[in-house]
Amino acid sequence: MAFITTEDYTALIRNEIKAILLEDYSDTKLNAAEQMAISQVKNYLAGKYDIEAIFTATGEARNKHIVMIVLDCTLYHLYTSVARKKMPDTRANRYQDAIDWLKAEKSATTPSADLPRIKDENGEELQGIKITSKYRPSNQRW
User: Strands, E, within 38-135: which ranges?
Assistant: First the structure.
Protein backbone atom coordinates (compact mmCIF):
# COMPACT_ATOMS: atom_id res chain seq x y z
CA MET A 1 0.00 0.00 0.00
CA ALA A 2 1.25 3.47 -0.87
CA PHE A 3 2.15 5.96 1.85
CA ILE A 4 0.00 8.67 0.25
CA THR A 5 -3.62 7.91 -0.61
CA THR A 6 -6.00 9.66 -2.98
CA GLU A 7 -8.04 10.94 -0.04
CA ASP A 8 -5.00 12.72 1.41
CA TYR A 9 -5.00 15.20 -1.45
CA THR A 10 -8.47 16.54 -0.63
CA ALA A 11 -7.11 18.32 2.44
CA LEU A 12 -4.66 20.43 0.42
CA ILE A 13 -5.99 20.74 -3.11
CA ARG A 14 -9.33 20.74 -4.90
CA ASN A 15 -10.05 17.84 -7.23
CA GLU A 16 -10.38 20.19 -10.21
CA ILE A 17 -6.85 21.53 -9.75
CA LYS A 18 -5.47 18.05 -9.24
CA ALA A 19 -7.11 16.95 -12.50
CA ILE A 20 -5.49 19.88 -14.34
CA LEU A 21 -2.08 19.03 -12.88
CA LEU A 22 -2.42 15.40 -13.91
CA GLU A 23 -3.78 16.12 -17.39
CA ASP A 24 -2.12 13.87 -20.01
CA TYR A 25 -0.04 12.09 -17.35
CA SER A 26 -2.41 10.60 -14.74
CA ASP A 27 -1.12 7.96 -12.35
CA THR A 28 2.38 7.69 -13.80
CA LYS A 29 3.14 11.35 -13.24
CA LEU A 30 1.51 11.40 -9.82
CA ASN A 31 3.43 8.31 -8.71
CA ALA A 32 6.73 9.79 -9.91
CA ALA A 33 6.08 13.07 -8.06
CA GLU A 34 5.11 11.18 -4.88
CA GLN A 35 8.25 9.03 -5.03
CA MET A 36 10.43 12.13 -5.51
CA ALA A 37 8.79 13.80 -2.52
CA ILE A 38 9.10 10.70 -0.32
CA SER A 39 12.78 10.32 -1.25
CA GLN A 40 13.35 13.97 -0.50
CA VAL A 41 11.80 13.67 2.97
CA LYS A 42 13.63 10.40 3.66
CA ASN A 43 16.98 11.99 2.83
CA TYR A 44 16.41 14.77 5.35
CA LEU A 45 15.16 12.50 8.16
CA ALA A 46 17.59 9.61 7.66
CA GLY A 47 20.13 9.05 10.39
CA LYS A 48 17.91 10.45 13.13
CA TYR A 49 14.55 8.76 12.65
CA ASP A 50 13.40 5.25 11.77
CA ILE A 51 12.55 5.86 8.12
CA GLU A 52 11.22 2.33 7.63
CA ALA A 53 8.71 2.73 10.47
CA ILE A 54 7.61 6.17 9.29
CA PHE A 55 6.93 5.24 5.67
CA THR A 56 5.51 1.74 6.18
CA ALA A 57 2.77 3.05 8.48
CA THR A 58 -0.68 3.05 6.94
CA GLY A 59 -4.00 4.77 7.60
CA GLU A 60 -4.31 6.58 10.91
CA ALA A 61 -0.92 5.27 12.10
CA ARG A 62 0.86 7.66 9.71
CA ASN A 63 2.27 10.87 11.11
CA LYS A 64 -0.01 13.62 9.78
CA HIS A 65 2.78 16.19 9.63
CA ILE A 66 4.92 13.94 7.45
CA VAL A 67 1.91 13.25 5.21
CA MET A 68 1.40 17.01 4.85
CA ILE A 69 5.06 17.61 4.03
CA VAL A 70 5.11 14.81 1.43
CA LEU A 71 1.93 16.20 -0.13
CA ASP A 72 3.35 19.74 -0.24
CA CYS A 73 6.50 18.48 -1.94
CA THR A 74 4.49 16.29 -4.35
CA LEU A 75 2.20 19.14 -5.38
CA TYR A 76 5.19 21.45 -5.84
CA HIS A 77 6.86 18.89 -8.13
CA LEU A 78 3.63 18.51 -10.10
CA TYR A 79 3.31 22.29 -10.54
CA THR A 80 6.91 22.68 -11.64
CA SER A 81 6.47 20.08 -14.35
CA VAL A 82 3.19 21.48 -15.69
CA ALA A 83 2.71 25.17 -14.97
CA ARG A 84 5.65 26.64 -13.09
CA LYS A 85 4.69 30.21 -14.01
CA LYS A 86 1.10 29.62 -12.90
CA MET A 87 2.07 28.15 -9.54
CA PRO A 88 0.21 29.88 -6.71
CA ASP A 89 2.37 31.68 -4.17
CA THR A 90 0.73 29.58 -1.47
CA ARG A 91 2.05 26.38 -3.04
CA ALA A 92 5.60 27.73 -3.35
CA ASN A 93 5.48 29.04 0.23
CA ARG A 94 4.19 25.74 1.61
CA TYR A 95 6.97 23.87 -0.19
CA GLN A 96 9.58 26.25 1.20
CA ASP A 97 8.11 25.88 4.70
CA ALA A 98 8.32 22.09 4.38
CA ILE A 99 11.95 22.23 3.26
CA ASP A 100 12.83 24.70 6.02
CA TRP A 101 11.27 22.40 8.64
CA LEU A 102 13.15 19.39 7.25
CA LYS A 103 16.45 21.30 7.30
CA ALA A 104 15.84 22.51 10.86
CA GLU A 105 14.92 19.00 12.00
CA LYS A 106 18.01 17.55 10.37
CA SER A 107 20.35 20.03 12.04
CA ALA A 108 18.63 20.06 15.45
CA THR A 109 20.56 18.43 18.27
CA THR A 110 17.38 17.37 20.05
CA PRO A 111 14.47 16.01 18.01
CA SER A 112 11.28 18.04 18.07
CA ALA A 113 9.17 15.79 15.86
CA ASP A 114 6.91 13.07 17.20
CA LEU A 115 8.51 10.41 15.00
CA PRO A 116 10.02 7.00 15.81
CA ARG A 117 13.72 7.29 16.53
CA ILE A 118 16.40 4.90 15.30
CA LYS A 119 16.96 2.02 17.72
CA ASP A 120 19.99 -0.17 18.31
CA GLU A 121 19.98 -3.97 18.36
CA ASN A 122 18.78 -3.93 22.01
CA GLY A 123 15.73 -1.83 21.11
CA GLU A 124 17.02 1.31 22.81
CA GLU A 125 16.82 4.66 21.06
CA LEU A 126 20.11 5.91 19.74
CA GLN A 127 21.11 9.30 21.07
CA GLY A 128 23.08 11.94 19.26
CA ILE A 129 26.73 12.47 20.06
CA LYS A 130 27.42 15.18 22.58
CA ILE A 131 31.00 16.20 23.15
CA THR A 132 31.84 17.66 26.52
CA SER A 133 34.97 18.74 28.27
CA LYS A 134 35.98 19.21 31.86
CA TYR A 135 37.62 22.49 30.83
CA ARG A 136 35.69 25.72 30.56
CA PRO A 137 35.57 27.26 27.09
CA SER A 138 37.96 30.14 26.67
CA ASN A 139 37.96 33.10 24.39
CA GLN A 140 41.18 33.35 22.37
CA ARG A 141 40.59 36.88 21.12
CA TRP A 142 43.30 39.35 21.97
Answer: none
Calculate ∠ Cα 35-69-29, nearest 5°. Answer: 30
Inter-residue contact 9 to 71 (CB < 8 Å)? yes
Q: pLDDT, tens digit, for every residue of 61-72?
A: 999 999 999 999
Residues 6+ apart with CB under 8 A from 44: 102, 103, 105, 106
The closest alpha carbon to 70, from 114, 106, 101, belongs to 101
30-58 confidence digits (pLDDT tens): 888 899 999 999 999 988 888 999 999 98
Q: Where are the domains of the chain?
A: 6-107
